[in-house]
Amino acid sequence: MALPESSEVPSWGRPSFRVGSGAGSRIFAVVGTHPNLPHTLVFKPDIEERRALIEDARFFSPPYAGAGGWLAIGIDPPKIDWVELAELIETSYRQVALKRQVALLGTRPSR
């Protein structure tokens, strides 16, 4: 929720994370979308990064969203690399946010 103008909105019975508000909001991450893997994160990677990520066995093309270039990763808490997960989410945000929203990332305090 530290990303500019982001919010959590329940969709399809799952938490989705969006940038913007109202009808113009855009999803940049969804949790728990795979019926056999309830603990997953779906995100939109950079097109160049997608090629490398899909070669990693931890990532898979999720039903429906995969056709649009989205990927998913299991988020089993004991095994999560939280820094990597934060990077994937921020990259996804950058893929769907407006230029002015992406520009606001530069004004955030560093972690």
TrEMBL record:
Sorted alphabetically, which keywords does the UniProt record give?
Answer: DNA-binding
Instruction: Cite the InterPro entries for this sequence.
Output: YjbR-like_sf, YjbR/MT2646/Rv2570-like
At the top level, the lineage of the source is Bacteria
Please name the Gene3D superfamilies in this protein's record. Answer: 3.90.1150.30
Molecular function GO labels: DNA binding
Q: What is this protein called?
A: MmcQ/YjbR family DNA-binding protein
